[in-house]
Amino acid sequence: MATPCIITVAITGSVPQKSDNPAVPITIAEQVESTHAAFEAGATLAHCHVRMEDGKPTSDPERFGRLLDGLRKHCPGMIVQLSTGGRSGNGRERGGMLPLKPDMASLSTGSCNFPTRVYENAPDLVNWLAEEMIRHDVKPEVEAFDLSMIFKAVEMQKNGLMKGPIHVQFVMGVKNAMPVDRAAFEFFVATLKRLAPDATWTGAGIGRDQLTLNRWALELGGHCRTGLEDNVRWDKTTLAPSNAALVKRVAELCGEYGRRAATVTEARKLLSLPAAAQ
After folding, report:
1. What phi and psi, each to the nearest 5 degrees, are found at residue 43?
2. Cis-peptide into 165, omega within 30 deg
3. How far from 97 is each of 44, 87, 105, 169, CA to CA, in Å?
4. pLDDT tens string 225-268
5. Which domains, from first to last, does the chain contain?
6. Beta strands in 66-138 (DSSP E)
């Protein structure tokens, strides 16, 4: 039987959207409501950022705490992954929410170029974030923007800075980082399987390439990320109606590849996470 697909929904970005799409949730209440609808549509993992009232990104633990409480209440069992990304902080404040003990947190294991800046992840900060995740029993999702980040993650696991099996997200389509290239994608997947045979992985495409990566991941046995953070448009011209609509699209796409969306219980088992608290 084909492996069920874990559908990750990235509900809102860490920077104000250039689009005026009203479906992008900003406040905590909007984020909870949007995630609940996506959960009902088949998403079992939520990737989350938070913002201040003026829309600016923040890593404020209090705001993350309110969001975490809301998601646990309204989306029972859903895997919650909090972002430690660099747009909401420059140093260790990026991990200030880890004592809240979310199920997962994102972790980039190296630096790369973004459209207008360097996405900087210094080795000492990466190690500190990884140590904090171990301390608070938070599973990292390695956000791999290039090949070196895969090798670094495997090295960190071998050195005790990550518990196995590791989970990697291949990110393609960010300007100035890894482009959407099928041969490179297949090489990434093969390299991860060679270095960490028990690892799991997700494909994430940016903008119009979101659907491309969804298809590639389903075909090659991985998991899928979708959501308004990565793609505020349904196609090249039309704004996406909601996070739930994007999730539903992936859930329906699963059938074309002989797969189906994973349940909460299945997703937690696939990612070696404990069962949800009752």
Report:
1. -75, 140
2. yes
3. 21, 15, 9, 21
4. 999 999 999 988 899 999 999 999 999 999 999 999 999 999 99
5. 7-270 (3.20.20.70)
6. 79-82, 104-107, 112-113, 118-119
